[in-house]
Amino acid sequence: MGMLIDGAWVEDDAKYRQSGGRFVRRESHFRDWVTADGSSGYPAEAGRYHLYVAAACPWAHRTILFRKLKGLEDVVSLSYVDPVALAGGWAFTGEPDPLFGAGFLHEIYQRADPAHTGRVTVPVLWDKRTGGIVNNESSEIIRMFNSAFDAVGDAAVDYYPAARRAEIDAVNAIVYDRVNNGVYKCGFARTQAAYDEAFDALFAALDDLERRLGGQRYLVGDRPSEADWRLFTTLVRFDAVYFGHFKCNLRRIADYPNLSNYLRELYQMPGVAETVDLQDFKTHYYASQLSVNPTGIVARGPETDLDAPHDRGRFAAAAAE
User: Fold this and answer.
1) pLDDT tens digits for 257-308?
2) What is the pLDDT of residues 81-112, one digit of tens each?
3) How far apart are CA 104 and CA 90, in angstroms?
4) At what angle do helices 192-215 and 257-267 cross, to 10 degrees?
5) Cβ-based burial of 162 (10 A; exposed 0-12, middle 13-18, buried ≥19)
6) Is the residue at 154 inside a domain?
7) Is 48 contained in some domain?
8) What is the domain range of residue 139?
9) 182 and 120 housed in the same domain
10) Does 184 participate in catalysis according to the annotation?
11) 256 is annotated as an active-site residue
12) pTM to 2 decimals?
């Protein structure tokens, strides 16, 4: 997709993303925090922050979900880049950049740091007051949304409760490495050995999650947590994109009874379906990632019914007996 090197856009970043044929995801660069008391220098104020996202990106999708689930739609403004990212990377053509009228997201990064070196990724949390990027690491942005804005959002729900944090962190570590990032390790592998290694780890992890969800309703505890939503954004794309496009084709999520029912339950929770557009997902991956799909032809299938009934209520019924 390209990247910035010393503040200049470079189209081909392939050599910066590979190690021995394995896909290597580089760490996010901007890592400041919004805090409730403002001790970080970034107080949680309504109207101060803007979130740049791509609807198709699973990492950005996390932040879209938490903005929705925590009632922050009127607190943090939001805008989308185009689903297709080719020359120049993430672009603003269908929906103009509301802050600066930028043509590409890399221009936003250049505003924050004219000498920036790194990939230009979503999400981006922008501070309108200081005119800079606060953070572009999705796992940290969702933590901010979960608690920092409680005075102006929905403080009634907590997806990272103190009593469950160690277990949530442990689940997140496995899911991130072997599932969230695991599908990319398959799709962007450049050797058979690298692909086989990632493929085996991915499906071993999915098998483990299937067993785990056979005995409990959610990944941690008796209500959805951050761990569930971090897994959700990969599961909801899996059959539509990763199964075919990234060659993650041992089994579909539809072939896992517990995972597929769990996916439908999360999807059917209030507000979640509004954040999911399967066609947009497919358009981005198939039409943008030409190193994987050189023709740019977007797959029409598969048929997916996320509104079909699920069986996860059986855990509540069992608890009540």
Assistant:
1) 999 999 999 999 999 999 999 999 999 999 999 999 999 999 999 999 999 9
2) 999 999 999 999 999 999 999 999 999 999 99
3) 6
4) 80
5) exposed
6) no
7) yes
8) 3-148
9) no
10) yes
11) no
12) 0.95
